[in-house]
Each structure stands twice: as structure tokens, then as C-alpha cells.
Amino acid sequence: MMTSAEIRKKFLDFFVSKGHTIVPSAPIVVKNDPTLKFTNAGMNQFKDYFLGNKKSPHARVADTQKCLRVSGKHNDLEEVGVDTYHHTMFEMLGNWSFGDPANPAAGYFKKEAIAWSWELLTAVYDIPEDRMYVTVFEGDEANKLPRDTEAYEEWKKWIAPKRILLGSKKDNFWEMGDTGPCGPCTEIHVDCRSDAERDAVAGATLVNNDHPQVIEIWNNVFIQFNRLKDGSLQPLPAKHVDTGMGLERLVRVMQGKHSNYDTDLFTGTIARVEAIVGKKYSAGDGIQDVAFRVLADHLRAISFTIADGQLPSNTEAGYVIRRILRRAVRYYYSYLDYKKPLLFQLVPLLAAQFKTVFPELDQQADFVAKVVREEEEAFLRTLEKGLRRMDDLMSALRGSAAKLLPGSAAFELYDTYGFPIDLTGLIARENGFTVDQPGFEAEMQKQKDRSRAATAIDTEDWMVLVDNPLVEFVGYEMLETNTQIVKYRKI
Ligand code: ATP
Ligand code: MG
Ligand code: MG
Ligand code: MG
Fold first, then answer.
1. Which has the least CB within 10 A, 112, 283, 407, 432?
2. Could you tell me the pTM of the whole model?
3. Alanyl-transfer RNA synthetases family profile domain: from which residue to which, for each copy (predicted)?
4. Hey, which of 8, 71, 88, 90 would you mutate to test ligand 1's pocket, going by the most ligand atoms within 8 Å of its Cβ?
5. For residue 304, what are the β-bridge partners?
């Protein structure tokens, strides 16, 4: 059985053999882009090449990119731990061709991209052909988008026509916004159902339909149009290939597992959690198993993001990390019955695991563990009281038909006990309640109007640790609004 390290290496070696230059992962935190807090796809760092603002020094590149999908356009947080293949942080393997009309032979397009995807999956990784199917853009008349017949014809060279499905604009057309570069994509799915299970479903050949064992692994995007303000499409003079394959899903397929968490990317962390909490993970759907998966997942998001310079805080990107961390704390506190800081104990193991792939974590492992520990301790100081308060609030409303937790209650939990709104929402849902989100936001706004103090933190949000590792945790400070902030200083 191939290890995840071998699988990653084979991807990169394969594309080197096809003339690609390997580039490092960009940081998971995005500094200079107001539209994006975190890297959510391999292509982010190449945006300027697609927009034509810059020219790539290499026509063909490949890499593994640290991605985070917990906010904005891609937010998979609610899925994580509940299903077995959406992570907060994951590695996106990718290969790119940046077209140059002056030198067309340097790049490649649909023919090569499709042939190479197929070659890699079948000849290098040995995934059986009859386990795979692909989707191709069907076209969209209302939006004047043509069907991708070229991709269809290329696939027909490799795979039986019944395994080529047509997909809609939602899944098979990529665009950055209402205008700008765009194009169709073709996605590769793997069907990991047992033969018996497949055959039992009459007529069901190959549709994903969110079946937990039929998963999308690879997206190949062909950036070939520029969409103008009037909605019309212009062919781009420079056509580009942009692909992304989730490493964790690929490894799951290659290691013959039914869950990403059963692969060697996660089993080490889960075993360590088992040892610490004295409970067993059984890969099931129960809440205790969800908690194990959430921890194994969130640890990565938190650790890699801090290592890339985003400290937890009360605003913007820093608050996204704090939210994920508090969500993880609540899972072990409530469902693994562990009442002390836990995540920080797992950081050294994770750092060692990724030492050669993402050395920035190992280089700062002590600092990351320290930040995580302080964060855990701070939240554990108010969590128990907050959970009791929330119980009381829900008990008082139990008789009501609406089962709606008012915005003022959600705000109290946020302001006094440090409960991020999505955590309150999660606990509410577990108890059959919903939260009055607009009411909560109105309370937040009122607080902001009352005090401008919180905005002062914005400028302290960001520090580049890799360039400037001399940062020290100095303690907590309570704002007058009762909001706790963590303070660091440069040393
Ligand atoms: P899905 O439909 O499963 O949510 P997607 O269509 O949103 O995936 P893409 O944006 O096409 O994903 O990203 C390319 C690849 O990255 C996917 O084919 C998948 O292998 C991987 N991927 C996407 N989101 C996640 C995630 N949250 N966790 C792990 N891998 C992911
Ligand atoms: Mg998705
Ligand atoms: Mg998809
Ligand atoms: Mg996709």
C-alpha cells in the first residue's frame, strides 16, 4: 500500500516528467487580497497570470497547496467531521499551464490535461477504470455558454462513453466573478461502493448524488473565455489549464479506505487523541466519532494557519481561526469528556508528520503549541458556565413553538462566554433550536456603535511569523465590552 507521502511525491514526479516546474505552496493566509482571507484553491497564487496582469516565469507548474475552506464562497465547515471527505484544511495537488500566444508550444490544453489525468490515475496509481467516471460541461443556453464538446471528444479516447456524464453550470463551469476569465471544467469521480451495493441499486450507474462512497477527486478547469460586462464571451488569446485534486481523497481511494480519516494522514492524530482521552474511535456516525474527526481535522487548520502568521484574534481572519479552535474545544469537552487543553498536545506530532512537506510548522512548533494552549485555556475558563447558561436559556424556551433562541441570548453567549455564533448555532441545532441570526447581528452592531474599541485590534491582526519569528504571547486583555483579546508583542 502506498503511503500518503509516496502518493504526493508520485503526483509531483509525474508532472515533472511532463515538463512542469514544482513550486512551493503559498501561505494558507492571504495578505494582500481584500477578496480573500485564506487560500481556498491551488490557483489563488496564480490569479495574476489568469488575469493577464503578470507573466509566469514557467509555462507549466505543479504543486501541493495548503487550502482552507471555512469562509466566503467555499465554506465546508458544517460538513467537516460529519462526512468523511470535506476538511477545513486540505492539500490540493495541482498542475497548471499558463498559455502564451507568443509561444504556444510551451503550454498545453485539454488534450494533454485529460490524457495526463487519465495516465496518472490509471497507470501510476492503478485505480481501476471501472471505478471512475467523469463529468463534462453540458452547455447553458440561457447564459450563452457552449457545451464542452472538445473535452468530451478527448475523454472518449480513454473512457467508455457511458462513463462520461454531462454536468450543469453549477458544477462544470468556472468563473471568478460576473466578468473576467472563465471556462468549462471536467471533474473525475471515484465510485468506492462495494460491487454488491452498486449492483443492488437498479439502473444506478454513476451519479455522485452525495453518496458518501462516490466522491469527486479531481477538477480540471479550462480557462478559455473572457466574459464582458454585456455577458458575452470572448475567446482568450492565452488559454490556461488549472487543476486541483484533493490529496486526502486520493489517498483514501489509493489506500482502499471508506473514510479520509482512516488513511495514514489522520490515523496518527486519532490514535494520540484516543490515548489522551482514554476512549476509542470507531469510525461511525455517532457524536463521539464525529468529535474525533473534528479534532483530527481542526488541528491541521489551526496549526498551519498560525504557522503561516495568522494569530487567533477577535476580528477578520484571526477570528475565523479562533472560531475553529473553540468549535474543536467544545467537541472534546462535551463529547470526549476531556476538560483540559488537548489540541496543543497534538501539535508536535503533526509538525513531525509534515516536517519535509511544510517545514514552517515544524520550525515554529513550540510557538504554535503555546498559542493554541493559551487559546484553549482561555475558552475553557468560560465554556462550562456558557454551556450551563445556554441550557438555561433553552429550558426557558422549551415550551415555545418556535424554538428560536433570540439574538440577545446569542449575543450574551458571545459577549460574556466567548461563544462564536456558529458554535451557538451548532449547539442550538443539536437541541432542536435555531438562532435568530439577524437579531444577533443587530446586537453586534449596537455593540460596535457603543464602542469603537474593537476596531483598534484590526491593525494588530497580522504578523509574518516566518519572516519574523520573534513574537511572544503576553497575556489576555478584557475590553470594556467584556470581549477578550489575546495580546502578543514582537521581541
Ligand atoms: P465538493 O463538491 O466535494 O465540495 P468542490 O467541487 O467544491 O468539491 P473543487 O473546488 O472542484 O471542489 O476543488 C478541487 C478538488 O479539491 C476537489 O475535487 C476535491 O478533491 C478537493 N476538495 C475540495 N474541497 C475539499 C474539502 N473541503 N476537503 C478536502 N478536499 C476538498
Ligand atoms: Mg465544495
Ligand atoms: Mg464539486
Ligand atoms: Mg469541483
1. 432
2. 0.90
3. 2-491
4. 90
5. none
